Request: fold
Amino acid sequence: MSEPTTLQNDVSLKDSVPEGGASLESILCTEELLRRPSRPPDYEKENRALVRLVSALADSPSTIFHTLAETIEDITQCDSAGLSLLTRDGKTPHVDGQRFYWPAICGMWGPHVGGGTPRNFGPCGDVLDHNRTLLFTHFERRYPYLMPVSPAAEECLLVPFYVDGKAVGTIWGIMHSNRRKFDAEDDRVMASLGKFASSAYQAWMHIEELKIEVADREKAEAEVRQLASGLEARIRRLVEANVVGIVMWNLEGAITGANEAFLHMVQYDQDDIASGRVRWKDLTPAEWRNRDEQAIAEIKGSSIFRPFEKEYLRKDGTRVPVLLGGALFESGGNDGVAFVLDLTEQRRAQKDLQQAQQSLYTTQVELARVSRLTTMGELAASIAHEVNQPLTAVTNNASACLRLLTDRNLEPEVLRRALEEIVADGTRASAVIARIRRFIKKAPAETVELDVNEVIDSVLALAGHELHKNEVLVECQLAKTLPLVRADRIQLQQVLLNLVMNSIEAMTGATNQTRVLSVESRINESGDVLVEVRDSGTGLGSEADRLFTPFFTTKANGMGMGLPISRSLIESHGGRLWATTDSLHGAVFSFTLPAAGESPS
Amino acid sequence: MTAASLVFVVDDDPSVRSSLKFLLSTVGLQAEAFESADSFLCRKPADIPSCLVLDVRLPGLSGLDFQRELATRNVCIPIVFITGHGDIPTSVRAMKAGAVEFLTKPFRDQELLDAVRLALDRDRARRKHDKEVADLRQRFDSLTAR
Reply:
């Protein structure tokens, strides 16, 4: 059998009418209805049919079109019966539709249900245009697209029906043979059924609207459900993952639910929660209750409380540090949820960090001492020499005296001169020793108000022999009035000695140059005490920026810690230490120290 | 001890210089002291037996450098080194280069005096040997070709 003839688009079929297609008049035989002998009305059958239609409309409105088609077939004793509805999209009825579709067909054309015809070029359209019942015979002669729709329609009786005064569709019956011809009685019954079709249409439209409405609502509800279930699943996942403690509570102090992570923190179990034995107010140590009250006040105002740190009491009475934040489920409500993070690990890490910092500090202090000793090591040879000189003189003088005494040749004046020299050299040696003792003593940092110039003098004295030995000329430009600084004397000496020794070494490398160490002290623009140690060496060159990197050294035996430690020592006194290259001379090492008070008189 | 000898002392420390002179004087040795190698070089060489008591650590030219410098100039004066801190490599170098003794400050008086005596003896012997060689050469030169 052929496929239902449908037109799925809005192509104007007028253009495609073959030349010589039959005229409308030639396929109409409406007038015949009046001329044919009419059968008597069967009101009883008609009434039964209408009752059936009404009850169908009441019971199962969705099948009303099919019931209507059956009724037409039954009452008119035709071979096929059905209805056509105007539509725009091919399915949904629409009063301004461009085509008709067939929602229900009974009888021989039953298989063509769902098909249809164009609005402006077809039998249904003709009926709406004429606004009356029309009887067609072999309409496929004018409308060739109906040719494949079989069996062919010998006669077709079409009746328009209306909604709110507008024609919206047709009902129709078809005779596929000359077995019977439609008559005036069929016309009357069809008109009556047409009125019914109108109410059915309205009911059906209403149902469609309801369907759409229901579908929309269901869709919206489904979306909400899906969203809710998605969100719920996510929240459940969060709760059950036990990554953070989650606790549900009310403002009265009860805990209404908690996850394992929370229970683990406070060492209670689900039974404790379910029984209501555990209340969040009781979990809070007394000294944290005020903070809780703050959070409650906050949550009453803004429905949330910002995270804060507190402690909870565990079941065994020990405490657990936590970070807590939460919200009410509904603004102005009584129930809420909070997340709880166990801070035990963080606290431990903090403590470890503090210990590490303390140990780092201790190491730095120790390193500073080692570095000082290293500097001392560099000085050791020079110092040994310095101490040995007076000792040698003492020994020589004393030995000479003893020899003269043995020879009974010791004149008092000679003895006196020798003893004077011995005393002077002994004093000199002990002064050197005392200076070293003071310097290498492992004293804890002790900040006192001191005069930087005094420290400069003591360091230059300490390095005196080294300067002399290396033929370094010292130029001092010390400010006459300099504010005192708060500093540790030993540390400051160490820094200065380090800079002086570095300078000496830098200049020893350079031959054919006058070796000048210039030490200057003054007040800078910021009111700080500025000390500059300048040498006449070769300058810093490309190494300037690496000087302060630990373990960087230009010396064969250097540790590379002198300058980094010097800088950290100065910085620990609130000052700065830096290096520049002088345009005329060599390197300039400068440091500042904040002034402590009035300048010494 | 004969007066016909001279001890030179080079040390940058005035106390050490004066105490050494005093000590040497107790055994009748005449001494001249200098604060640096350069100032010693400015003095004209002695023509009597002499020796040098030399500090290793000196401003400017060090004791060891000075020893080498003297060798280069062909000055054959025996050297007794004295040093504030004696380390083995330095003493080995000094002795290999012909030093008579290497003493660490403060030293015992007898050690120094023995070393100075030994140095003077060597110089005396060298001078005697040099003189004999010179005499021989003179006699050889005075011979006429027959």
